[in-house]
């Protein structure tokens, strides 16, 4: 059920670990696992981590195992990554993402799309890309969901360290 979110309410952080700020991430020359030591919750019994990211030249993203850095040097548009396998029908699927830095810009979205999603379509445009058409569904850090270009309020705004 869609409900309006409360202004100023953000999701709580998952843990109390210290995370790098945007400047530290920007100035870091290595891979994210070298910079972020927190892996809280990842080794809880029963957790499964089969997801891998499909490497693509179309998207401005640096992929290292489970970690992704969007726009590793500078941003000139919207970057999208795709998982390496399709979801199986008849099953319930969910995933957890952890954002380690402050969220800013036109939008930061998590979502799902068909194989028809063009990963490079918005490489030089700043847009809320997931959910712009019938090929994908997006959940924005602002707490809105989007599909077929329609945005609706859904939940609280995301904050750094939230899962």
Automatic annotation (TrEMBL):
Coiled coil: none
Domain of life: Eukaryota
Cellular component aspect of the GO annotation: SCF ubiquitin ligase complex
SUPFAM superfamilies documented for this protein: Concanavalin A-like lectins/glucanases
Gene Ontology biological process terms, A to Z: proteasome-mediated ubiquitin-dependent protein catabolic process
Database matches in Gene3D superfamilies: 2.60.120.920
Protein name: GL12741
């Amino acid at each position: 059920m869609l409900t309006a979110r409360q202004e100023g309410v953000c999701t709580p952080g998952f843990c109390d670990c210290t995370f790098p700020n945007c400047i530290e991430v920007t100035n870091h020359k290595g891979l994210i696992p070298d910079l972020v030591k927190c892996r809280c919750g990842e080794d809880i019994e029963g957790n499964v981590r089969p997801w891998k990211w499909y490497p693509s030249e179309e998207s401005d993203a640096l992929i290292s195992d489970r970690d992704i850095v969007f726009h590793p040097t500078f941003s000139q548009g919207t970057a999208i990554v795709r998982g390496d396998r399709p979801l199986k029908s008849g099953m319930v699927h969910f995933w957890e993402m952890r954002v380690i830095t402050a969220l800013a810009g036109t939008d930061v979205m998590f979502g799902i799309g068909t194989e028809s999603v063009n990963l490079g379509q918005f490489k030089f445009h700043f847009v809320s890309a997931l959910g712009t058409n019938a090929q994908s569904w997006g959940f924005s850090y602002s707490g809105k969901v989007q599909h077929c270009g329609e945005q609706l309020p859904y939940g609280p705004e995301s904050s750094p360290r939230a899962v």
